[in-house]
Amino acid sequence: MTATDPALTALSQGWCALSLLHGRIETHIERALQAGHDLSVREYSLLDVLSRQHDGDGGHLQMKQVADAVVLSQSATTRLVTRLEDRGLLERYLCPTDRRGIYTNVTETGLRLLNEARPTNDAALREALDEAATHPDLAPLVRAVETLKAPVPA
Questions:
Q1: H/E element holding 90?
Q2: What number of H helices and E strands is found in the chain?
């Protein structure tokens, strides 16, 4: 295949369209969350991921798992956790069975803020998708996103 191969060009254009859609959605949600709740998209995502933890087997996530879930490096995730902890939205504690492990939980204040922000996030996502659906290059991607189902836990 050459650099001007039509298959590669189409693949590249598809990737650019996907990147554009993601950027537009993230920007729209970011503005709404910042204006209404003083939260960034990453902060909201971290609160959301951590709020789904539970006690028992597999209930708590390691920082690498959290970093993967919010699509950040481990060091960036640690900084984000620290910022939210400083705001009283998260708390860290040692694992009771392995003193090397540190868990992070959402505080009651953090859960309240997350629950207040969730409708804003959902509405901003819907608005961003509706707007993107009006663009011929993005409409097929919007339809694909709308048909995705949440993965079933193994």
A1: strand 90-94
A2: 6, 2
